[in-house]
Structures are given as structure tokens and as C-alpha cells.
Design goal:
The structure holds two protein chains of two kinds. Chain A is mainly alpha-helical. Chain A has twelve helices and no strands. Chain A has one domain. Chain B contains eleven helices and no strands. The longest helix of chain B is centred in the C-terminal third of the chain and has 37 residues. Chain B is globular and about 65 Å long. The chains are: A mainly alpha, B mainly alpha. The interface between A and B is medium-sized, with 34 and 34 residues.
Amino acid sequence: MRFHKLRVLWVFFRIGAMNEMAYRANFFIQLFESLLNLGTALAIVAVVFGRTETLAGWTPPELVALVGVYFLVLGAISLVIAPSLERFMDDVRTGNLDFTLTKPEDSQFLVSFSEFRIWKSLDVVLGAGVLAAALTRMSTEVGVTEALTFGVALIAGATIVYSFWVMLATLSFWFIRVENILMIFWSMYAAGRWPVGIYPPWLRWTLTLVVPVAFAVTVPARAIGGRLEPGTLFGALALGAGLFVFSRWFWRFGIRHYSGASA
Amino acid sequence: MSGLRYFAALYGTLTRTGIALQIQYRAANVIWMLGGIIEPVIYLVVWSTVAREQGGSADGWTPADFAAYYVTLMFVNHLTFAWVMHVFQFRIQQGELSFALLRPIHPIHSDIADNLGFKLVMLVVLIPAALVVAWTFEPRWNTGLAETLAFVPALILAFSVRFLTEWSLALAAFWTTRVTAVNNVYFTALIFLSGRVAPIDMLPGWLQTVSASLPFYWMVAFPVEVMLGRVPPGELAAGFATQLAWIAAALGMLSLVWTRAVRRFGAVGG
């Protein structure tokens, strides 16, 4: 039973895929939308670099790499975490959470991965493509060290964002309109398309600790550019581990005090 | 009742209803406003950084100029935006449009009133936020009485251009369910060509030419530039005339499309 979670994950993925495959047009719509969003982001970068050589020390390839990381991370979140936890928030309200809790698998796992929007993987692929293209044009050497630090930073960032989402979602045990708080996340996430170093300190700290965009996007982008200080990387890892533990505790606290939808 | 008094009474009631409705959803609305505040702040910071890297000013724009531009943009964007393109398809599918069509007034009137109600109520949020942004970024204003007086008609005309154009485009929902794709193209063009990503001066030359021949500039950037004193008095009259021309074009498209849309809607509904 060691690979049980993986098999459940695969089932969820297949269900999501089957649902989406029924609407073939959605693939082309999503492709169009992803290309448009990506094109817009890159065009904005082009407009900015039409007026300057560097932006706060970031060269054009580095900023394009940042845009690539942004879409990659955004795509990964929108692929499974965001839709699953949004559905969970609805399930608490409608009472369907009780069905999830009867299943013989960890509830946080089920709730986090229940819904795959497979066409969002286009964002991940396109983001990775843009990142790869930017890497070929970077002035600094991108070697194994950079790739490894990038991978570690990405995992740390993903853990931080996931834990943050879980903590937000757990709030819906006590508050009904948590979806509105998600809107705050998405609004602030748009600020992550630019290196957080350019923002004034109060905004930078908000984007690091309150809505952890900095660790999700800027830190991995700096890692791949070979400009990440070890201190920041360890900070990201520590924060990721800490938040994961705390969010897990918070989730179990919420579940323990959940009295169920029936009377 | 004469035409004007009829509309005055109509709008009085509709706007009061609109305001009451928007106050009900004030928490959600405040969170909605956040996007409209964060976006200009992001670009303000980006362009100020560019200016500092260029030794204090980029093409004559200093960080203080950018701050003034984006604080003004925050207000103008808020006072001109509309959400009808996002909801029209939903309205058709959920049957709300059927109810609206039963009323003896054109559905656009309640939309205008709801829109104005939202904007009025949310100024309570926007003004303190703009003050905080202004206090943080220290804008520099070249605005005098003349600019402020010219700003009012520019703003009203800009709102009319934007609202009528977007309402007409929203009618695409009668012909396709894929309105999101259509809308995305429009909104992409909008953020570039209406001066939200960058002041029009900062755009490459060819894009500035494109912007001048489309209505987007007249929806948002023109009132902002009037307020900042960047439009010479000689060009004001020509500017207003262009705005009026775009309003006429939007009204023409609206009346043309609306009758066809309702006919099609009636044919499908049954």
C-alpha cells in the first residue's frame, strides 16, 4: 500500500482528463488564452526594455526567465491545487466534505488533488518553454549548480505556496466567504511577474510573508540566473518546511473540530 | 412626463437601487477593488525603477511624474470601467435577460445605474487607498484650474466611450458561448492602448500610432493626460470631438446589433 497515494493521484488525473476531453474545444480556447497572456507579459517586458537596458539589475533574458517561471508556477497552481481547494471550500458549505471524509485516505491529500484541470498544463509547458528560451540567451553560464539550486528553490517555493493555500482553505471551516480571500491572492500574485526587489520594502515584505509570491517566482528565477545567495535559499527551505508542518497541523485541527454537515 | 424628466426620475430610482445593491456586497466589492489598486502600483514601481536607472528620468518622465500619472489613472480607470462583458453570457444563460427584456426600459439603463452606484460606493475605498499610494510615492502635479475644468467633460465622455463600446461588444454573447476568448482579445488591447501598462509616450512609435486610431486611448489615457496638463489647450477641442465621434460609432453599433440580438434571442428562446 506504499504507492496508494500515487494510484489515487493517477485516478484523479484520469477523471479530470476524461472530463476535459469531452470538450475538445476547451484545449484550443485554453491554448489561445495562454498564448495571449504569455504574449502580453512578454510584450510588456519588451516595452519596458525599449526604454532601459536593465531593470534593477535584471537583464532582459533574466526578466524573460522570470516571466517563464511565473507562468510555470501559476500553471502548476491552477492545474490542481487551486481548483481542488476551491472545490473543497464549496464542499464544506454544501456538506459534500462528509463524503470525502469517509474515504480511507488522508483527507488533506484527497482535498488537495481531487480536481485536475489538465489544459492548464499548457501554461506549465509554455512557461517552461519561455524559461528554456531565456536560458539560451543568458550572459551567465547556466550549469548543473544553477539547475540544482533552481530545482530546490522551485520545490521550496511550491511547498510554501501549497501550504499557504491549505491554510487559507482551512479557514473555510469557520468562515463562509473565503473565496473572496482567494481574490486577494490572485491580485497580489500578479505583482510576482516582476522581481520583488523593485517594490518598496513594505510591499516586498507583504509579497514574501503575507502572500508568498516572492519565494514562488523571484527566488527560483534568481537561482537559475546564478544570483541567489545561499542564505535566501536556506531561508526558503526553512520557511517551506515550517509552513508545511504548520499548515498540516492547522488542517488536522480544523478536521478534528469539524462536526459534519448532518445534525 | 416629458422625455428629460422621465429619464431623470428613472435614473434617480435606478441609481438608488444600484447603490443599495452594491452596499450589500461591500466586502466582496472591496476585495474586487484590490486588483484595480494593485495594478497601477505595480506599473508605477516598474516605470519609476526604469526612470531611476536612466539617471532620474525616462524620456522626460521622472518617478514623481509616473506617480502622478498612475494615481490619476487609478481614479480614471475606476470611474470609466464596466463589467458587463464579463457577465452578459451568464445573464443570458440564467434567464436574467428575459426578465430585463420584459421591462419597459432598455436593459442598458439599469446597467448604467448599477455601474454608477458601484463607483460611487467604492470611492470610499479608492480615495484612502489613493492617498496612501500618493503618500508613499510622492507624485508631482502640474494641474491647475484649467486642467481640472477640462478634465470633467473628458472623463464623462471617456466613460461614455468605454461603456457603450463594451456594452456593444458584450452582445457577442448572443452569437457565441466562447465570449471569454473574444473578451480576452479586447482586454489585452485595452491594457496596452489605454495607457494602463505604460503612459502612451512610453510605447514604441508604431504602437502609439495604432493607439491613436482606436478608441482605447480616448477611454482612459486622454482624461489622465488632460488632468496632468499634458494636452495643450489647442488640442482639447479636437480631443473632445474625437471622443464624441467614438461615442457616435459605439451608439451606432449598439443600436444595429441590439435589434438583431433580441430577434435572435427571441427565436432561440421560444
